[in-house]
Design a protein that fits this description.
Blueprint (H helix, E strand, L loop, with lengths): L1 H11 L10 E4 L3 H11 L11 H17 L6 E7 L6 E7 L5 E10 L6 H10 L9 H17 L6 E10 L4 E9 L6 E7 L5 H5 L12 H14 L2 E9 L8 E9 L4 E9 L3 E10 L8 E9 L2 E11 L6 E14 L2 E15 L5 E15 L2 E19 L8 E11 L9 E15 L2 E13 L42 E14 L2 E13 L6 E12 L2 E10 L8 E7 L4
Parallel strand pairs: 1-3, 4-6, 7-9
Antiparallel strand pairs: 2-3, 5-6, 8-9, 10-11, 11-12, 12-13, 13-14, 14-15, 15-16, 16-17, 17-18, 18-19, 19-20, 20-21, 21-22, 22-23, 23-24, 24-25
Pfam family, one: POTRA_TamA_1
Family: Belongs to the TamA family.
Keywords: Cell outer membrane, Membrane, Signal, Transmembrane, Transmembrane beta strand
Length: about 575
């Protein structure tokens, strides 16, 4: 029981605590002082400091706190200092030399004795000879052994021996742990109940096969895959533990079909596009093969967009599917006026290294006016995109990354009006210095090769400026200009953003940023923007409000207010 108490104290030692207002420590610092302060802080705020009984209680508690982190030979001298309301009990402490581990044995028995995860755990977390005796770390290795056993299917695991002994006179400690994992359990058959989707489609989503060793993380991955399919409203995964390890773990998944039709509406405002109205209509599943349909309409003064997509999965539902997209877009902003019609057939794969590959064939017809130019374009463009994204979770993750590179090719050989190669890339990272400090770095780049820029429709040219580009400049206001000063659009694009965020309170953050870049044809003219912003980690994603100043425009055009909702990368 003593060791258990000491272990709890040692586990708490990592957290700093305010010292007791009536007690002053002298002669100790660092983790030892923190552990003593943490323990004494539990005492009542007001005490009879002159009481011998109280002083003895304090001394005994200090000794317990010291032993928890390896100091068994402390001497403590109490004395009263100050008068009346300012009087304190001063503890002059000589900690003495800490006990060191003379012998450490952490033995893994059973099937886990050859499991690399257990071998690695003991190597990384386990105490070592000559380490200071620390009851909290002793408990930590035991807790992690138990936790790892449960995660990896050793459900009969138990401690054969768990012993921490000390010899204070010799300044030595001894640890001997024997952990018998017993046999490892294996997955059995997986049964789905209540599903409207064919069983073979669901079985293809399993990250494991019957007979493979149990891993709790694979059950979590399965649950995530089912949720991401958007076929089900509820998902309940249960595992029936057999009577012995020779039998396999039967997995039962009870699901409830998703609502057949979902409609989302929204009204918003952007300084770039003004008032906006959005309407999304989705059918998460159309048949028992898991086909789905989605559509989106977004209306604002400068832009009106209607899009629809039909998706049908292949055998591997999560990572292999086709999608047919159709879109119409009307645009009238700055010096651009255009009407676009797009039809695209896409094939998606998830590669072994977690990169997504998308191969597409897109038809684009566009009538346009760009500055002094006008015309139409009829283009057939095969393309390929590689993308990869990751985040640590949450509305505003502490870590995230995104990589994307896309290429489309056009040539008269297959019926296009123009011959060109268009390359687009975007990379970004989010990181954290601590829980209250985040940073964001983002780079954007693009290029059009072979064809003169004046032969391309505006949707394929590059423009910079706006809330996802160079803040401090209005939406797509940066590009080369023609003889009349009208925006022409660019062959090349390169922008960068650097942002620092500080948590003010709860889900509210303050931000400061610097953006730079350009869109150009022959020689880049760099545009810079700086600003301050507010971030709110809302349930539907981060909401961002930025006040930005362009450093390379006339002062009467330099101020911009940007409002946006959605992922930061």
């Amino acid at each position: 029981m003593l060791y258990r108490t000491l272990a709890i104290l040692a586990l708490l030692a990592a957290s700093a605590a305010a010292a007791h207002p009536q007690i002053e420590l002298k002669g100790v610092s660092g983790p030892l002082a923190e552990n003593i302060e943490l323990y004494l802080d539990r005492l009542p705020a007001k005490n009879n400091l002159g009481s011998r009984r109280f002083q003895n209680k304090v001394i005994e508690d200090v000794k317990l706190a010291g032993r928890a982190v390896g100091y068994y030979r402390m001497t403590i001298e109490p004395s009263l200092v100050g008068k009346d309301k300012t009087q304190k009990l001063r503890l002059t402490i000589k900690p003495g030399e800490a006990l060191r581990l003379k012998s450490v044995k952490v033995e893994i028995l059973g099937e886990a004795s050859t499991d690399p995860e257990f071998i690695q755990l003991v190597k990384q977390v386990g105490p070592k000879v000559n380490h200071r005796v620390h009851h909290g770390r002793y408990e930590e290795i035991k807790n992690q052994l138990n936790s790892l056993a449960l995660r990896r299917g050793y459900f009969q695991a138990k401690f054969v021996k768990q012993e921490l002994s000390v010899a204070p006179r010799l300044l030595q400690g001894f640890i001997h742990i024997q952990f018998d994992s017993g046999p490892r359990y294996h997955f059995g058959e997986v049964a789905f109940e209540g599903s409207q989707i064919r069983d073979e489609r669901l079985q293809s989503m399993l990250p494991f096969q019957p007979g493979e060793p149990y891993l709790s993380s694979q059950l979590g991955e399965l649950n995530q895959r089912l949720a991401e399919s958007n076929w089900f409203r509820t998902i309940d995964v249960t595992v029936d533990e057999p009577e012995n390890a020779e039998q396999q773990l039967a997995v039962t998944i009870k699901v409830e079909p998703q609502i057949r039709n979902t409609v989302e509406t929204g009204v918003g405002y952007s300084t770039d596009l003004g008032p906006r109205v959005k309407l999304n209509w989705n059918r998460p599943w159309l048949n028992d093969r898991g086909h789905s349909f989605n559509s989106r309409m977004a209306l604002s003064g400068p832009e009106q967009t209607v899009e629809a997509g039909y998706k049908w999965p292949k055998k591997n539902v999560s990572n292999d599917f086709y999608k047919l997209n159709f879109g119409i877009k009307n645009k009238d902003i700055e010096d651009t006026r255009s009407q676009e019609y797009n039809i695209a057939l896409e094939r998606h794969w998830l590669l072994a290294d977690d990169w997504y590959r998308t191969v597409s064939l897109r038809w684009l017809y566009e009538d346009y006016e760009q500055g002094l130019e006008s015309g139409s374009a009829n283009l057939i463009m095969p393309g390929v995109t590689f993308s990869r994204s990751w985040n640590s979770g949450g509305s505003m993750p502490s870590e995230a990354s995104r990589y994307l590179i896309a290429t489309e090719i056009s040539d008269p050989a297959w019926g296009s009006d123009s011959s060109f190669v268009r390359i687009r890339s975007r990379v970004g990272w989010i990181g954290s210095f601590s829980e209250d400090h985040r940073y964001l770095v983002r780079f954007d780049a693009g290029a059009v090769l072979r064809e003169a820029i004046t032969e391309l429709p505006p949707s394929l040219r590059f423009f910079a400026g706006g809330d996802n580009s160079i803040r401090g400049y209005s939406y797509e206001s940066i590009s080369p200009v023609d003889a009349d000063g009208k925006l022409l659009g660019a062959r090349y694009l390169a922008t960068a953003a650097l942002e620092y965020q500080y948590r003010v309170s709860g889900n509210w953050w303050a931000a400061a940023f610097f953006d730079a870049g350009s869109a150009w044809n022959d020689k880049a003219e760099i545009y810079r923007g700086v600003g301050l912003g507010v971030r709110w980690a809302s349930p539907v994603g981060p909401i961002r409000i930025d006040v930005a100043w362009g450093l390379d425009v006339p002062s009467d055009q330099a101020f911009q207010l940007h409002f946006s909702l959605g992922p930061e990368l």
